[in-house]
């Protein structure tokens, strides 16, 4: 609901498209409500003011970052050359970029999506491109940076959503820094169906996929991976399974790292996972990867027995120390 609906401002015309205003209002409501957020391997309620700056440093190609840094540093170093006209031009380009970064970073109700910074990028590109005009040395440095950027991005094509730069360890290590749409938005589910066509021995797999569409709509035949939520014996798959079972698994990295999100169960229903698949990440090694967002596991009878015994022992010790059965009211079956 619009916060100004009952005030004198309710009838004030706004010179912007209705859908834009409503979208901003809904987004602001989400920020005010707050959500669980992830950064550098840690979850917490609410976000971080430096999340988007950190995300920029690990997500963006290093060549682009070098050009941007060189342009800014060169301008500051030669501040004595500034004129009223050059200051005005810098102001028109730099202020929107800085303002967008500041606005997004100030919303710490949650920190999730680097896409919130996209309106700043045209201005950042203009600032970075200035290095080509700074002289022969900087011109050739710019060519090197641009070549590096193109090569780095194309090397991981077409998995650009999951891209992380070399200093962050590349896409394979991106989940150590960020999650959610910064790696996975369900874009690799179609590739999973192709993987299953090439690997018929996997049969009907267990899955917990981070997607807003039902994977069965594109022909994926799967069952909900058995959840394990410490102290909650009602958190079961539709088949009544809890914890490790032998078979093939396809699990989104967001679920492996403990995201709280609904996943489809293979029967058209959604199951609320509250970090119910971290046991896989913590105890088993993947045998393959789909893109950089879906991990494939093959759990044998021996693996299942070993991990189940470990989880039950840890659960018993936790309950002995007074565990409260976290998340019972929020979980449940499919």
Task: Explain this structure.
It is a single chain. By secondary structure, the protein is α/β, with parallel strands linked by helices. It has 2 domains: 43-180, no CATH class; 186-330, no CATH class. It has 10 helices and 9 strands. It has helices spanning 18-33, 51-59, 62-77, 84-106, 121-129, 136-155, 189-198, 253-256, 278-283, 301-320, and strands spanning 36-39, 42-45, 205-208, 222-224, 247-252, 260-264, 270-274, 288-290, 294-299. It has a 5-stranded mixed beta sheet with strand order 4-3-5-9-8. Strands 1-2 form a two-stranded antiparallel ribbon. Strand 1 and strand 2 (42-45) form a beta hairpin. Helix 3 (62-77) crosses helix 5, helix 3 (62-77) packs antiparallel against helix 6 and helix 4 packs antiparallel against helix 5 (121-129). The longest helix has 23 residues, at 84-106. Mean pLDDT is 91; it is low at 325-334.
Structure keywords:
single chain; 334 residues; alpha/beta; 2 domains; five-stranded mixed beta sheet; two-stranded antiparallel ribbon; 12% strand; globular; disordered C terminus
């Amino acid at each position: 609901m619009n916060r100004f609906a009952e005030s004198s401002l309710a009838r004030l015309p706004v010179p912007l498209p209705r859908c834009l205003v409503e979208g901003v209002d809904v987004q602001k409501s989400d920020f005010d409500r707050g959500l669980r957020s992830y950064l550098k391997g840690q979850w917490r309620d609410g976000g971080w003011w430096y999340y988007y700056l950190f995300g920029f440093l690990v997500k963006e190609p290093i060549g682009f970052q070098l050009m941007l840094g060189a342009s800014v540093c060169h301008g500051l170093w030669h501040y004595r050359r500034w004129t009223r006209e050059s200051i005005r031009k810098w102001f028109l380009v730099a202020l929107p970029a800085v303002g967008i970064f500041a606005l997004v970073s100030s919303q710490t109700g949650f920190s999730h999506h680097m896409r919130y910074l996209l309106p700043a990028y045209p201005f950042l590109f203009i600032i970075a491109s200035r290095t080509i005009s700074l002289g022969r040395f900087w011109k050739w440095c710019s060519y090197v940076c641009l070549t590096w950027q193109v090569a780095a991005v194309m090397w991981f094509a077409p998995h650009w959503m999951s891209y992380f730069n070399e200093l962050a360890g590349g896409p394979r290590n991106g989940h150590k820094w960020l999650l959610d749409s910064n790696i996975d938005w369900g874009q690799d589910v179609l590739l999973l169906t192709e993987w299953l066509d090439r690997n018929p021995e996997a049969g009907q797999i267990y899955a917990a996929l981070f997607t807003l569409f039902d994977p069965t709509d594109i022909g994926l035949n799967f069952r909900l991976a058995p959840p394990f939520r410490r102290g909650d014996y009602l958190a079961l798959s539709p088949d009544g399974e809890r914890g490790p079972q032998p078979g093939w698994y396809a699990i989104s990295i967001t679920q492996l790292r403990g995201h709280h999100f609904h996943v489809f169960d293979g029967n058209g229903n959604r199951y609320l996972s509250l970090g119910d698949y971290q046991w896989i990440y913590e105890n088993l090694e993947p045998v393959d990867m789909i893109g950089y967002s879906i991990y494939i596991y093959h759990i044998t009878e021996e693996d299942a027995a070993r991990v189940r015994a470990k989880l039950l022992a840890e659960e018993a010790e936790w309950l002995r120390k007074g565990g409260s059965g976290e998340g019972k009211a929020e979980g449940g079956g499919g």
